[in-house]
Structures
1.
Amino acid sequence: MRGAVIAERGRLALPASGIAPADRRASGRAVSAQTTVGRCATMSSMAEGASARAKSGEDAAELRKESYTMALYVAVCLLAALLALPEAARHHLIGLIWGITIGLAAAHFFAFKISARLIGAGKVQARDIEAAGAQLVGAAVVAALASVTILVLPAHLEYHAAEFGLSGFIAVSGYAVARRGGAGRLRATVYGLVVLTLATAIAVVKNVLAGH
């Protein structure tokens, strides 16, 4: 009888670790669940970080596009102005270049700000301010490039220097577009010349329509 009682006590006794098998399994499941939750949180954090980096990259690309667009626009307009400029008025090219650039940039900024308020329910968003700043930078870079070419070359070459600087900027932009698209150097050069030809044609048509 005593042996039976001892055997029964041994059967009901806790394991050496002090934790019943059922409790041990429950504890294991809890640890596994915590590990899974931790992994999910880590993956979610990594996904959010990747999404934020992608959004930042898209914003930067959009700002560059705004800057390049404004720069090319100003370059074509300046080229049109130089082509229509009488020979007697070619003595103050730097003032003319910066006057046209500032006028174009101011008009564009005004229109951009009004349209931003129209879309933004009367408010200008931070990204709109950044885009406007990128546009102004693009315009200033083109005007500075044309000014540098004028200052570097002799006075009797100022006019042609300004035309060369603007034409070179447009052609190089076309070349860069083709290269980024995977074209070889020769094909990219041809593409750049085509872009320059089209830009010059646009400038000439602009002058013809304006009566110059």
2.
Amino acid sequence: MEDKSNIKIRYLHSNTSKDLKNRCTDEYKIYAPKIAKKYKKTFKILLKFTKNRDKTLYIMYDKVKKWYKAENINMSMEKIYVKTKLGSYLSGGCGIEASLLTNLTASAVFAYTSLYIKKLGTISILCYMLIISFYGLIVLSKEDDEVEMYNLFLEVLNELETSRE
């Protein structure tokens, strides 16, 4: 029987080989989703205790730093993941909820500009716009918190990367 820890990996079109046992087992694991769950739970609890968002963010910075230090991570993979998440939020790809909000608003504009204004009346239009406005505020505040969290992750990763060098 062959020892699987000493298998030689041969790269295509080259004469070099690499031992499998020298490879880090956690090399391709991304910890950001796991840390994001911890972050959200801990942030809510700390915010109730401190009642100050800035203090809570400062405490969370240290906690996220400890969490990342405790794991054996590939810095470049983590940074790519976090930057991709930030890019999707900042470049207009806000997610399903924001798309739903846009669709609801657009459908209301097209529906109410036609003959339905006479049938439904102004009270129903005002109620619809009020509901859409509150829903929009909830969605945008949630996505703002996500962007804040991923920016914090990116800052921690940058600091850890400079401290390793």
3.
Amino acid sequence: MFGGVSGRIQKDRQKAGGLGSVQQAVRYQNQDFQALKEDCLQNGTLFEDPMFPAEPASLGFKELGPFTAKTRGVEWKRPTELTQNPQFIVGGATRTDICQGALGDCWLLAAIGSLTLNERLLHRVVPQGQSFSHQYAGIFHFQFWQFGEWVNVVIDDRLPVKEGELLFVHSAEGSEFWSALLEKAYAKLNGSYEALSGGSTTEGFEDFTGGVAEMYELNELKKAKERDLYRIISKALERGSLLGCSIDITSAFDMEAVTFKKLVKGHAYSVTGLKQVERRGRTERLIRIRNPWGQVEWTGRWSDNCSEWSSIDAAEKDEMLCKMEDGEFWMSFSEFLHQFSRLEICNLTPDALSEDSTSFWNTTMFEGGWRRGSTAGGCRNHPNTFWINPQYKICLLEEDDDPDDDEAACSFLVALMQKDRRRYRRHGQDVHTIGFAIYEVRGQIVHMKKDFFLRHSSCARSETFINLREVSNRLRLPPGEYLIVPSTFEPSKEADFVLRVFTEKQSETKDGSARLGLLEFQVLWNKIRKWLGIFREFDLDKSGCMSSYEMRLALENGGFKLNNKLYQMLVARFADNEIIDFDNFTCCLVKLEAMFSTYSSEHVDESLIGCSSCSDLFYIYVICNM
């Protein structure tokens, strides 16, 4: 009986109850890991996943499609068929467990490698207690963040093998398989292995943590922004964010190349600390970097045995050097900006932080979609349709607590992410070019019309419209009310999206996309329960539907006494062959409530419409709004 509107309401209710959190992840494709495992153990069988079968289609569709050179001769084998003593994890997860295979997903492997540095985050993605010995049934599971919720992905352990070797990710250990199985689960989530080819490390960061990523091109950083970046890094470290930096490569020959001062090009370094020290009467800013991949360490200024250390307080020196882990080193902040090309920050949501974290972002998320002809208006270059895009209102209430900044402004991050675009690659589609604009609105309604955007300029916007899964920007605006308008670059491009807003201080939000807040949802849910009781009462034959004759009695019971003319209009709109199901019955009642409320509150000049009768005017209102 429940589908469509009522099904979505049921899903929203479950989400409000915790479904989709790390502790209560959504079962991907409705597969229950524990139930499937117990069934296999009882029957003495090994799990074979019908949702991601050991077939060519799971490998890919183009370069990894059936009968291509890369997939010719591929077999699917379980780890127990590849080695005598397979292990899930040996001695903890490390970067040596992650060796790239015949797939261009180094971006994913770099993200997995960074994940191994944080055991707490790793165990959210790779649940503990999995092995090839105790209660082995050929089934494993992993958890990923996907567009606002955590999902639990079940796989079997049949892996693609060519000439006796794993085709894709493998461990240097040879008998360790957690990374290969993790890659398979992520491939299943995205439709195939080939769908993982090409991407950004930040995409993996986000799917492994639920955080929001931002990227800074250090080569393009202007001098005036250096102080801002130092403050941003300081606050990110304070919040427990993941920070990575790297040096660009200009050709394949640059990969793994070591610079004059012993920095490795193409490697992902971690940023682990900041410190200001007094040296010879002036303050110098230092940054602590870690190379998790090897023993090569920085040999420039402030390296371990550098003379600079003798010119600062001895106790401070001992504290800074003694607390370092293997592979960590200090360098001056100005040299960091000169030596490295890119800084990536993954800001974590409160649920991902350790319990002793005292500083974190406040997060708000909206879900929406662009639909041709209704909500896909394109960017501001298309003024006739831009206004039909979804619109979301935020209220920035408190300015930042920054004693070094005299500007009264609120810092926040806006991140716009397209949903499921990797899955569409099989059908020749990819990510759209997307971005957003922000407008100041003082006490205005949520959904602004065309005239508003013709008369007002945006006060902030994404730095660019770009064809990436996510566009994110850090912004600062005075306290006030603002409207965020996400859009594709061109009109009529269809996609679903998630819009997330991370604020340093508390904020209020309002959604112009017809999605409900918690209180609104509770009110509607109580009405749905009441209407379900009415529906069941007048569904005399208990068929799950009612006739149009029964519908009239049910509407009267719901508080709507309608004349024949209006009732005929409702039957024509909501009944199918004089039969109405619960979804359409609910839609009818929602529409009636909304229109009666709006009609009674609006003051309309009847002479402009040419109708003198109030009932005729209401009929016109119904026709225009059904």
